Amino acid sequence: MLGIDIIDAGLLTAMAFALFGGLLSFLSPCVLPVALPYLAYMGGVSVRDMGEDSSARRRALFTAMFFVLGLSTVFLILGFAFSAMGMMFLEWQDWFITGAGVLVIGFGLHFLGVYRIKFLDQEARLDAGDRGGSAFGAYVLGLAFAFGWTPCLGPILGGILTLAASEGDVSRGTFLLALYAAGLGIPFLLLAAFLPRLSGLMAWLKRHLNAVEKTSGALLVLVGLLLVTGKFTDIANWLLSTFPALGYIG
Fold first, then answer.
1. Which of 31, 105, 142, 191 pairs as cysteine with 67 (C-beta 3.0–4.6 A)?
2. How far is CA 63 from CA 69, 114, 182, in A?
3. SS3 122
4. Closest Cα partner for 173 from 182, 160, 186, 185?
């Protein structure tokens, strides 16, 4: 793919978790409620205009693209850094993955409400200044969003970064964070483009944020257990035997 052989059946399970994890991050209580105001501010329009005026939606969509590019920049850098760190620990990879799995399970139990980790319930929101209405301003807001919301996204993002580090390959690990960024960023674009049609869905999701948080917790516990027990390889082998065409990917 693009001259870089990074995708194989062994990576497919992690790819699915990364993409779904990004979507769950968008649906989390610290992102979903502010998604519309952010889109409106970036486009220099009001939320009402976005719902009633197609030109306002196009403007919001244009700036949202640069917003997503900004947050993706941060996550790609994180993916590169954690993958490089994972390569340094290849000699102790089994211990590293087991410890990472325990940590991810701990994040999952936080989301499930077994206990609360206080700093994960906070956002270090950065002030990007008056940046509304321009592509550059939206990009800066994307950077600020990724940095500022990292504590709140921490459990899910931490799980994906753990997967990236466990890959022990910079290209593969960075690709996982690209998928996470896509799962988080694409819903912003869809919301900007199709707000009138999605208003009912948004209202329904806001009423069920607690269920989204529990789902996130269950996903993290599952990922952690797979890491601790080494079952990622078993799932990859099952995928390959069930869908032989996957062996030709990459």
1. 142
2. 10, 39, 16
3. coil
4. 160
| DSSP class of 29 | T
Q: Distance between CA 107 and CA 24 in Å, rounded? A: 14
User: What pTM value is reported for the model?
Assistant: 0.75
pLDDT in the model for residue 124:
46
Closest Cα to residue 31, out of 131, 145, 198? 145
User: 80-84, 228-232, 236-240: which has the highest mean pLDDT?
Assistant: 80-84
Q: Is the torsion defined by CA of 18, 20, 24, 25 positive or negative?
A: positive
Distance CA 189, CA 123 (A): 23
Locate 40 and state its tokens: 């409106």
Helix axes 195-207, 170-193, angle to 10 degrees: 110
Interval 99-149: pLDDT, tens: 767 777 876 776 677 766 665 555 544 444 544 567 888 888 888 888 766
Distance from C-alpha of 244 to C-alpha of 238, rounded to nearest angstrom: 10
Question: Nearest CA to 114 among 222, 17, 227, 214?
Answer: 214
Q: Averaged over 3-26, what is the pLDDT?
A: 73
- The Cα 229–Cα 231 span in angstroms is 5
Tell me: pLDDT of 191 over 50: yes
